[in-house]
């Protein structure tokens, strides 16, 4: 399996990410023109992890996204359903408690985490609403969710240019740096198919999250959504 389809069968998505694990972080850096580093800094600010807090980092991949929370003194659990990603992460940072898990059936008790976050991974889950409900379940009352995901640029001319980049320029660039360039065809298609900012906010509310808001990054190429679990 070199790439998943848009019906997002879990075994297909996991296999696809297994295939890109070795060069995943490098490829993301190249394809985003370095913007992924800025986006991750904004995620860290939004999560605002504190010492002794428990943070669940879903779709953590190799654990790159988990490091800012660990540096802040939080107990962070990097969780992903790609065994290949987890193996690469464990090799690089063996001290992190990497955990295999499906976002729609999380292997954690109710009301455990102070914050749950997922960056560039919710789009790859087959049942978005089930995942949002599961994240709500494992978050303690008063805790928070932060989602960083590709979204829809707000300025129409830029949106047109961006869509052209996704569908035409991204796959050739991926061929030069990725171990599985076909996976990045899926990436482009899944971004184009993803709901816009207000639609995702509505789904968060439907899953039980309150005080839902979002902030656009890079003109809406990426959006940060945040919500809270009522006490």
From TrEMBL:
GO biological process terms on file: methylation
Gene3D superfamilies: Vaccinia Virus protein VP39
Function: Methyltransferase required for the conversion of demethylmenaquinol (DMKH2) to menaquinol (MKH2).
Enzyme class: transferase
CDD domains listed in its UniProt record: AdoMet_MTases
Pfam families xrefs: Ubie_methyltran (PF01209)
Organism taxonomic ancestry: Bacteria, Bacillati, Actinomycetota, Actinomycetes, Kitasatosporales
Protein name (database record): Demethylmenaquinone methyltransferase
Pathway stated in the Swiss-Prot or TrEMBL entry: Quinol/quinone metabolism; menaquinone biosynthesis; menaquinol from 1,4-dihydroxy-2-naphthoate: step 2/2
This protein's encoding gene: menG
Coiled coil: none
Stated family: Belongs to the class I-like SAM-binding methyltransferase superfamily. MenG/UbiE family.
Gene Ontology molecular functions: demethylmenaquinone methyltransferase activity
Gene source species: Streptomyces pimonensis
Catalysed reactions, semicolon-separated: a 2-demethylmenaquinol + S-adenosyl-L-methionine = a menaquinol + S-adenosyl-L-homocysteine + H(+)
Binding site for S-adenosyl-L-methionine: 62, 80, 102-103, 119
EC number: 2.1.1.163
């Amino acid at each position: 399996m070199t790439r998943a389809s848009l019906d997002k069968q879990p075994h297909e998505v996991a296999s696809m990410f297994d295939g890109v694990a070795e060069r995943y972080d490098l490829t993301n850096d190249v394809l985003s023109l370095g913007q992924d580093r800025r986006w991750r800094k904004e995620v860290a600010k939004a999560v605002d992890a504190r010492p002794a807090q428990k943070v669940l980092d879903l779709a953590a991949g190799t654990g790159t996204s988990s490091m800012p929370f660990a540096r802040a003194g939080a107990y962070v659990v990097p969780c992903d359903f790609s065994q290949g990603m987890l193996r690469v992460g464990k090799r690089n940072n063996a001290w992190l408690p990497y955990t295999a898990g499906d976002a729609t059936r999380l292997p954690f008790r109710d009301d455990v985490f102070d914050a749950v976050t997922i960056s560039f991974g919710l789009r790859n889950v087959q049942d978005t609403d089930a995942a949002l409900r599961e994240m709500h379940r494992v978050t303690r009352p008063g805790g928070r969710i932060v989602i960083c995901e590709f979204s829809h640029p707000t300025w129409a001319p830029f949106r047109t240019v961006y869509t052209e980049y996704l569908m035409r320029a991204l796959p050739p660039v991926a061929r030069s740096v990725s171990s599985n360039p076909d996976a990045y065809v899926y990436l482009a298609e899944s971004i184009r198919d993803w709901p816009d900012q207000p639609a995702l906010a509505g789904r968060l509310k439907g899953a039980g999250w309150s005080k839902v808001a979002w902030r656009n990054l890079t003109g809406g190429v990426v959006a940060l959504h945040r919500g809270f679990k009522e006490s």
